[in-house]
Prior knowledge:
Layout: H1 9-67, E1 76-81, E2 88-90, E3 94-96, E4 100-111, E5 117-118, E6 123-140, E7 143-154, E8 159-163, H2 166-169, E9 173-175, E10 177-180, E11 186-189, E12 195-200, E13 208-210, E14 215-218, E15 221-224, E16 227-234, E17 248-252, E18 262-266, E19 275-280, E20 286-298, E21 305-319, E22 323-331, E23 344-345, E24 356-361, E25 370-382, E26 387-407, E27 414-417, E28 428-437, E29 442-448, E30 456-458, E31 463-465, H3 474-480, E32 492-498, E33 506-515, E34 525-529, E35 533-534, E36 541-550, E37 556-564, H4 567-570, E38 591-592, E39 604-612, E40 620-629
Antiparallel strand pairs: 1-2, 1-4, 3-4, 4-5, 4-6, 6-7, 8-40, 9-34, 10-11, 11-40, 12-33, 13-27, 14-15, 15-33, 16-26, 17-20, 18-19, 19-26, 20-25, 21-24, 21-26, 22-23, 22-25, 27-32, 28-33, 29-32, 30-31, 34-39, 35-39, 36-38, 36-40, 37-39
Amino acid sequence: MSNKIIYNKKGQSLLELIIAMAIFILIVSSIMFLVLDAHTSDRQGLERTQATLLAQEGAEAAASIANRGWRNLADGKYGINDKPGHWDWQPTPDVIDNIYTRQTAVETVNRDTQGEITDTGGLPDPDTKKVTTKVSWDFTIARPSEVTIETYLTNWRSLKWRQSTQAEFDLGVKDQVVTALSDDGEVVLAQNGVQGENNWTFDTAGDYAYDAAKIEVTSSVSRLISQSLLGSGRTTNPGFNTTLAPWQYFDWDQDAGEVNVAGSRQTSGGHPGAYARVRIPRGRNYQVGGFFQQKFSVTEDNPTTATLTFDGRVSGFAGTPVSLEVFAFLDTVPGEPVAGTEVWSSGPISGTTSWGTITADITPILAQAGTYYLKLAAWAVAGSANAGIFDIGFDNASVYWEKAGTSYPTDGPSINPSSSFRPAVIVSWSGFQETAVKNGGEIYYQLSDNNGTSWSYWNGTAWAAAGAADYNTAADVNSHISSYPTNRRRLMFRAFLVSDGTQQIILDNVRASYLISNPTNYAVSGSLESSAFDTGGMATIYNYLSWTADEPAGTGIQFQLRTADTQANLNSATWVGPDGTAASFYTEPNTLIGLDHGATGQRWVQYKAYLSSDGSTTPVLKDITIDYEP
């Protein structure tokens, strides 16, 4: 008996087909997944690369905006655009290709005591900004993506005008404020004790003592007198009246074996009186000469005029020379002159002559200040036939030069009241101010409490006896006058008007103030209008205003600025705050400056500090800084 296994071949083929199809589908699905995944990865990579480039562009745009002025980096969040032709902020994020949203945040950073940037604590650094540019997009609705780039920008191009000392604050105009000695100068409100003052207004010349040749009191000012002649000079002894000196005689190119030329002073026969004579003896085959020389100085460059004059005569002429000539030279070195460099010559002389006057303009020759030598010379050439004697005379010989222009005394002439000011009651001196136009010069002061019998100055630690060159500026006097003695109840000043010769110094008013009673409460308001500052740039950019101050309860400090193209125009410019109007004030340190320069320009700048109080105490301004780019 045998067993057989019978296979159903039809069923086997169907099963194999199903398995093959499953394998095929699996392979195709895997391939499709791989293709789709690669596409997704490529897309994601491309979009992230684009986002990174956009973020980098945002960071570079922030740097470009900073380069146009640090004040453009106000803290906040911005979009960017280039519609003005350069990168600039816009208030909303910018959208690129309807896909990417870009926003840039600007933040002030803090630094610790070591100067390191810190996220906690520390103090704000207005010269460093953190710039964060974020680009976001939706890869899919369920997959938002973003790229962030952080950079730090520094205010490396800026300069700073800073005032922090008593001397610097005292250069300004104060109204109900004073500069305290503490911390080398702090601005505080004045205490309101009863005050008095005296003004010296220079209305009456007889009320003052001064050198009338150097200072004049007129039109309610005292000022240096202008001098129309800056300098002049001349040679001496033009007529050889009693001696030849300082003239000297020298032979000119005389060799051995030739005739001996002689120079001498003749006591008569001149034009008139004495004169100087060159005598060339009789002889043959010679070329000889002689000259008189005088040294003189020119003390100014480019004199306005310079003239050479002298009288000349040939009184002896025997025989016929090959040539006989008379010359005038102006040299910068002594000794024999060089033919061809003369400033005047007679040309060939053929016989005797009477006295005649020669004049020559030598202004171009004396263009430089220095030492010069005037040389009056005679020269003769004889051939094989005897020639001579030749007598050549010089008289009334001189050089005169002058430089016209405007100059002022340079020795610091002084002016003081004829009598002292004497208040009826005084507790202490409280102020000393001047009103003046200095044009780059200066006015210095000494004080006297004994009608000018002796004078005092501040020597850095105390009031001391003053020598001729011991004096102070008005600002120095004002800073220390509170310690000037009051026991005699007298005050006199002596003002020294110091110029370099080109500056006219004009003193319009001197004012001394004093306390009649001891101070009690503080003024409720006051101001300091700073000195003017020249940034040196007609298109200066002002970045921020910073200051250090104490503001106890009930007090406050705020500021305004003004700018102009010239110092003169600064006085009429408008005081403005951060919004560019007169109604706004800077109240927080490190505030960015938003001046409306208008037509007044930007080169010169001033600040004005406004101090306020409830009367019981005072705010204290310690320093102030204006950051700018010229």
